[in-house]
Amino acid sequence: MTAEVSNSTECRLSQSLSSRDDDSHDIYTNFLYLDTSSPGFNDPITFPKDPKERENLLELPGNRKVLIAQPAVVTDVGDNIRHYTLDCHGFQYVNHTTKCSKEIFLDEAEIKASYYPEVEQLIKDVTGASYVHFFDYAARGPLNRDDGDPNINRPVKSVHCDQSYEGAKRVVMSRLPDKAFAEKVVKNRRFQIMNIWRPLEPIYKDPFAVTDARSIPDSDLVALPVIAGDYTEESWAAEPNPAHRWYFKFAQKPDEVLMFKCFDSGKNKDIARRVLHAAFTDGAQEHMPSRESFEVRAVVVYDD
After folding, report:
1. Contacts (Cβ under 8 Å, ≥6 apart) of 97
2. Where is this region: Disordered (predicted)?
3. Is the pLDDT score of 132 beyond 90?
């Protein structure tokens, strides 16, 4: 396992399009935002535990949401990944090679035994955190090339943030195994909810984008209830806004890992707290194979 990390506390301004190399692949597309004024918006989104109940996930009550298309340019970070950091932008691309073969991502026991420790060390190396607890993961796409299952996890194209500020506290209280420690974390420690997103093959179709946290005012965020198995949680939807700045990495490879924050309890107002994220359509790549990716979600805690 190898990792190349950098998380400078200096908050650089994003590069202008004119200062980047000519090989960048910025894309004009539409991002799909939930219509927060539509009937049924406040009905909880539901992710049942029972696989059979998930077979018609989009037809479940609360999961049929009205969407609004917002045109945007998605900036390709290209080879300039060091310009984007967790504390400044809310996301960071890191060069990291896993020892795990793709088949491991089909086996929950192997994921927890082999992949989790690698990513835990990566998070600690990048952030300086003292404690990491993984509470969820998701494989997207036909990881097995012969998998014709129409109910596999597809890329999510609706703009969202997995946890609201209240939802992040609920995750800590419900998912950490030591409840006394969880209370201390919520009351006294800096903590984050972080996603670590890895392609399993180079990504062309349905690439994954995140926003610059500085372009998302709190006034654009709208709380949305989520029922995930036995847990009642809360996420953010967002009002469409042409000022939102979107980023991705064209042809992102398996060793180009994206780390991004859904929540940060840090009190420094200059530190990014959360980003929005979504898959999007690149019309020039629709003929390419389905996206294959793997993401883990973690509670990240600091001593300070």
Report:
1. 1, 2, 3, 255
2. 1-21
3. yes
